[in-house]
Amino acid sequence: MRKLSALVVALLTACMLFLAGNPAMAAGKGELTGTLWQESTQNEKMALIYGMASVIAIEQTIADRQKAKPTPFVACWIKAFGNTSPKAIVEKIDSWYAAHPGEQEREVFNVLWYELIVPSIPK
Q: Positive or negative CA dihedral for 28, 85, 34, 106?
């Protein structure tokens, strides 16, 4: 239970760091688009990805304890990123936006799912 509590605290801290460091997100303006992503610092990007990875770890831990299958999102994230570091995930997102300059208003979560996670799922 302590490990789970520590993970929740880590997630909340990471999210707070991202929001506090990014005035547009802290003010509740707009979605997390490529434009906002690119304006974010490396630490802000890392905090967001670390927070997401923490949620994945929490969900996986809960599924393991309940002897249940992980949710489809968790299973797909693990297939796509496995032991990939948060830094490497940030670099993949950065690279995608650099290669697609006309899609800067596309949401980061949309890019993560459709461009980075879905292609790793076996057909």
A: negative
pLDDT digits (tens, 9 = 90+) for 22-55: 554 454 556 899 999 999 999 999 999 999 999 9
**What is the C-alpha to C-alpha distance for residues 63 and 69, in angstroms, rounded to an integer?**
6
Domain count, the chain: 1
Q: Give dist(CA 118, CA 111) in Å, integer.
A: 10
Both tokens of residue 67?
A: 């002897």
Q: How far apart are the first and last CA of the chain?
A: 37
pLDDT confidence band for 13 (50 / 70 / 90): low
Domain ranges, residue 99 = 2-120
Q: Which residues pair with 122 in a beta bridge?
A: none
